[in-house]
């Protein structure tokens, strides 16, 4: 269990886990964790943990384990449960009361009071003892203790009462049938720096509703906003159900509507109870309005669909039945099962309109196919658009590169032509040079210059001697 956790648990960790296990009815696991805490981890015995475990044993009706745990703690504390050990006194008293040992229970209570006189006031211990007294016919003693606690309460120095103290006393007053006092206790919490929460209000509203005091319950509900407390789903359901039981169906429907508007989401069972009652009293339109409100918010089952469809069919509103069927088909999260389809066909068949559902289903299939085709077309258009954008970005770059390449080609052609011209010119010069060369004309440059005059060239060649010509060729 906790021994396998990546971090080493502290005594507080064990307290939290054991209380959670007890509150969720897992007493055996809680007891195992207590043994692990002491035997394996080596922590000192924690009276608060023993208190949680003893309370769990009381809830399960196991008085033997209550006393076993007390004796175990007593032994581990050196033979006497004192100091913060008094937190277990409430559980011990409940164990005695369970066995019918009222005298021993009150003797235990006397020891508890003596410890309190030594300045051992503890809200947790006090609340447990208060609860033991209230639930076992000792309300007067509980009231005396509560008044003493209020006198000793001096926050932040001395925290003797807390929210739990007031909740216990509210329950105690209700058990005594003193509902007006219960309401007063709840509403005066703030005088002692304790603020009631939603659970506190729900607890009292529940008890008032259960005892035929709906008007008083609504009064308490009306106080919630002023105390900064928000009603929850349970608050509204309590009031709705009680209104329905007292034939105040419109008020019950109003509480349901408030619940939805507040952001709370009722479950399907609550919705079904409301529309069922509305239909019973002939409020068909109101029932249908709640169906329209909740059909998208709740995961309705076939029975819920069938109930409202049958209601519409019974009053001759088959068009509404078809609309409901269409809504289910269009809702991607809903399932228009074969069973439900057959039910709808059966209702339509009563008026010879069975084929209308078949046509509706075919039309929906056609619409789905068209929508799919449009999706594919849109996807292709999107691809083409994206490609066009990319091409538009690339084109300027390509054009510039082409222009650069074209310019380079033109330059290359011009250079080639120029070289060719120089080469041709060079051949004429060479020929002229050879032709003009003679021993008396060794200046080639002059020969080139003179080469332009053909008559002078021919004369020069004619005048040359064989010896001059040979010399010129050897050169």
Automatic annotation (TrEMBL):
<feature type="coiled-coil region">
    <location>
        <begin position="350"/>
        <end position="384"/>
    </location>
</feature>
<dbReference type="Pfam" id="PF13041">
    <property type="entry name" value="PPR_2"/>
</dbReference>
<feature type="repeat" description="PPR">
    <location>
        <begin position="162"/>
        <end position="196"/>
    </location>
</feature>
<dbReference type="Pfam" id="PF12854">
    <property type="entry name" value="PPR_1"/>
</dbReference>
<feature type="repeat" description="PPR">
    <location>
        <begin position="46"/>
        <end position="76"/>
    </location>
</feature>
<feature type="compositionally biased region" description="Basic and acidic residues">
    <location>
        <begin position="443"/>
        <end position="452"/>
    </location>
</feature>
<dbReference type="InterPro" id="IPR011990">
    <property type="entry name" value="TPR-like_helical_dom_sf"/>
</dbReference>
<dbReference type="Pfam" id="PF01535">
    <property type="entry name" value="PPR"/>
</dbReference>
<keyword id="KW-0677">Repeat</keyword>
<feature type="repeat" description="PPR">
    <location>
        <begin position="267"/>
        <end position="297"/>
    </location>
</feature>
<dbReference type="InterPro" id="IPR002885">
    <property type="entry name" value="PPR_rpt"/>
</dbReference>
<feature type="compositionally biased region" description="Polar residues">
    <location>
        <begin position="462"/>
        <end position="475"/>
    </location>
</feature>
<protein>
    <recommendedName>
        <fullName>Pentacotripeptide-repeat region of PRORP domain-containing protein</fullName>
    </recommendedName>
</protein>
<dbReference type="InterPro" id="IPR052308">
    <property type="entry name" value="PPR_domain-containing"/>
</dbReference>
<feature type="region of interest" description="Disordered">
    <location>
        <begin position="399"/>
        <end position="475"/>
    </location>
</feature>
<feature type="repeat" description="PPR">
    <location>
        <begin position="197"/>
        <end position="231"/>
    </location>
</feature>
<feature type="repeat" description="PPR">
    <location>
        <begin position="122"/>
        <end position="156"/>
    </location>
</feature>
<feature type="repeat" description="PPR">
    <location>
        <begin position="10"/>
        <end position="45"/>
    </location>
</feature>
<feature type="repeat" description="PPR">
    <location>
        <begin position="232"/>
        <end position="266"/>
    </location>
</feature>
<keyword id="KW-0175">Coiled coil</keyword>
């Amino acid at each position: 269990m906790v021994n396998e956790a990546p971090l080493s648990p502290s005594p507080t960790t064990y307290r939290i886990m054991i209380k959670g296990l007890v509150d969720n009815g897992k007493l055996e696991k809680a007891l195992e964790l207590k043994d692990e805490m002491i035997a394996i981890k080596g922590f000192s015995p924690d009276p608060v943990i023993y208190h949680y475990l003893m309370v769990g044993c009381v809830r399960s009706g196991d008085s033997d384990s209550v006393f076993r745990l007390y004796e175990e703690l007593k032994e581990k504390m050196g033979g006497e449960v004192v100091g913060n050990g008094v937190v277990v006194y409430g559980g011990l008293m409940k164990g005695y009361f369970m066995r019918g040992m009222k005298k021993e229970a009150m003797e235990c209570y006397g020891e508890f009071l003596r410890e309190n006189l030594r300045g051992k006031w503890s809200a947790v211990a006090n609340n447990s003892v208060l609860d033991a007294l209230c639930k076992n016919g000792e309300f007067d003693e509980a009231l005396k203790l509560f008044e003493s606690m209020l006198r000793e309460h001096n926050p932040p120095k001395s925290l003797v009462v807390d929210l739990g103290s007031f909740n216990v006393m509210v329950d105690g007053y209700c058990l005594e049938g003193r509902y007006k006092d219960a309401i007063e206790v709840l509403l005066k919490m703030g005088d002692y720096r304790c603020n009631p929460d939603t659970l506190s209000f729900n607890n009292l509203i529940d008890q008032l509703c259960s005892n035929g005091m709906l008007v008083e319950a609504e009064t308490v509900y009306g106080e919630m906003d002023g105390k900064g407390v928000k009603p929850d789903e349970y608050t509204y359901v309590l009031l709705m159900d009680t209104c329905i039981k007292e034939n105040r169906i419109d008020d019950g429907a109003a509480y349901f509507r408030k619940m939805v508007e507040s952001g709370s989401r009722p479950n399907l069972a609550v919705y079904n109870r409301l529309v069922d009652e509305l239909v019973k009293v002939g409020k068909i339109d109101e029932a249908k309005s709640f169906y329209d409100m909740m059909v998208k918010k709740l995961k309705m089952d076939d029975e819920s669909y069938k109930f409202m469809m049958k209601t519409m069919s019974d009053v001759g509103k088959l068009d509404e039945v078809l609309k409901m069927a269409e809504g289910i088909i269009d809702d991607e999260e809903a399932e228009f099962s074969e069973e439900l389809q057959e039910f709808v066909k059966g209702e339509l068949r009563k008026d010879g309109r069975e084929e209308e559902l078949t046509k509706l289903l075919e039309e929906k299939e056609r619409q789905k196919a068209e929508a799919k085709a449009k999706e594919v077309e849109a996807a292709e258009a999107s691809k083409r658009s994206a490609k066009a954008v990319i091409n538009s970005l690339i084109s300027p770059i390509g054009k510039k590169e082409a222009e650069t390449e074209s310019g380079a080609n033109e330059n290359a052609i011009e250079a080639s032509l120029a070289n060719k011209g120089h080469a041709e010119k060079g051949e004429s010069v060479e020929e002229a040079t050879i032709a003009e060369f003679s021993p008396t004309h060794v200046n080639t440059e002059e020969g080139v210059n003179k080469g332009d005059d053909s008559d002078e060239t021919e004369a020069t060649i004619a005048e040359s001697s064989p010896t001059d010509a040979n010399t010129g060729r050897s050169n």
